[in-house]
Amino acid sequence: MIQRIQTLFLLAVAVLSGLMLTGDILLMDNGAGTVFNISFPGLGENGAGVIQRLWPLTAIMALVPLLALSAIFLYKKRPLQMRITMFVLLLSLGTLILGAFYVLMFDRKIDVTLIWKVKAVFPLVSAILAWLAYRSIMKDDLRVRSYDRLR
């Protein structure tokens, strides 16, 4: 149901996570004129394609918008919707942690300077929005349970 606030939160999570699937998330310059990027397909060199596929990061980035959209349509099954929303929250944080891990590992091999893109903040914003959606779903569930007690 679109009038519920958690639907808007989950829709924003799906849009932000969907935007992560396009373009570069982070650029890394090694100082010698070579610029590397981390994007949905993996680690690549600008203009040269993908150097190494980052399958765990790719899988998580693809799952988050799909699960957020599926959670929107589970409004009649609030316990399942709450579990999926919590899973979306954990996957968003996992995207952030896994991305930081890959950047640190690449920085250890080759000394690079990071060029931040706005998309690097999207997993954190998605996690916050998923948490807000979870809280709203929980409030709805408590409200429905209190109405059931009155009957």
What is the chain-wise order of helices and strands? Answer: HEEEEHHEH
Beta percentage is 15-25%
Structural class: alpha+beta
Q: Unreliable segments (pLDDT under 50, ≥5 consecutive)?
A: none
Compact description:
This protein is 62% helix and 16% strand. With 151 residues, it is α+β, with helices and mostly antiparallel strands.
What do these coordinates show?
The two termini are 24 Å apart. This protein has a five-stranded antiparallel beta sheet with strand order 4-3-2-1-5. It has one domain (5-150): Butyryl-CoA Dehydrogenase, subunit A, domain 3. The chain has helices at residues 5-19, 55-72, 78-109, 122-150; strands at 24-29, 35-39, 42-45, 49-53, 113-116. The mean pLDDT is 88. It is elongated and about 70 Å long. The protein is α+β, with helices and mostly antiparallel strands.
What attributes characterize this protein structure?
single chain, 151 residues, alpha+beta, Butyryl-CoA Dehydrogenase, subunit A, domain 3, 5-stranded antiparallel β-sheet, 4 helices, 62% helix, 16% strand
Topology (elements, then pairings):
Blueprint: H1 5-19, E1 24-29, E2 35-39, E3 42-45, E4 49-53, H2 55-72, H3 78-109, E5 113-116, H4 122-150
Antiparallel strand pairs: 1-2, 1-5, 2-3, 3-4
Helix pairs in contact: 1-2, 1-4, 2-3, 3-4
